[in-house]
Amino acid sequence: MDSLSVDHLLGIKQLQPEDIDLIFRTADHFKEVINRPIRKVPSLRDITIANLFFENSTRTKLSFELAEKRLSADVLNFSAGQSSLKKGETLIDTVNNILAMKVDMVVMRHPMPGAAMFLSREVNSRIVNAGDGAHEHPTQALLDSYSIREVHGDLAGKKVLIVGDITHSRVALSNIFCLQKMGAEVKVCGPPTLIPKYIESIGVKVEPNLRKALEWCDVANMLRIQLERQRIQYFPSLREYSLQYGLTKQLLDSIDNEFTILHPGPINRGVEITTEVADSERSIILDQVENGVAIRMAVIYLLADKIDKRNSS
Ligand code: CP
Fold first, then answer.
1. Measuring from each residue's beta carbon to the nearest atom of ligand 1, which residues come in under 6 Å?
2. Contact 240, 223 (CB under 8 A)
């Protein structure tokens, strides 16, 4: 397989294992490129990409922009805060106006679940979901699995634990889909109020005790508490949360199992993970960020192959 089975990257749910494998193999090539003295290739010289961010971002926005520039694409950046959305313009009007400027691909982060899928049905452009509310964050899951693969080899049979606010996390859902498609086993751990009731129906086990969960896993992905998406209080206090579900050096040292530590960022140091653990040798948090550029180069490069210049806006 040398072409994706999808025309857009809307979520991991729509991908086949072969798509994920193709993205990883393409990212292997781009990782080698971005570690060369000249970190740029001319592959997408005739492509224009718009990054539309309707929600805050540091890692994803910069990583997409860098990936696009490393591929020599022309890049437009749009932030909702400074736009005419404030004057009442709809999402479709905003995007169609941008596409009228001959844009080939749209990378979008939006607070509404399903926003990327909606856009893919309404406009003539390749769409990449950079996070849609609490739904999916496919490139984060791809870079997480890619980073696990780098340390542990084949994902099949690996035991991956996701800790924290599973209910409000698009990273959790995309990770679950990606890891399962690649043959890994997934467990979650967190306050019962932040574990969705449907979780076992999608093949994910729940381990309420963090120590037991950490003794089981090859990899622990520590998530942030998504306070901005919580409309009610799901646990007594952040202090209480970190006492039960925070990863500390003391806990790490007391467990006889050398699991790898991931975090998608942004980190709330001292809540889900302490500074000592986040910056320890067991943590691959900054490798995840580096791999994010290679993964996003791979996704954009493979989707660019699907652009029909005759019908481009
Ligand atoms: N991991 C992640 O999506 O980070 P940002 O919100 O900073 O993009």
1. 57-60, 131, 137, 140, 264-266
2. no
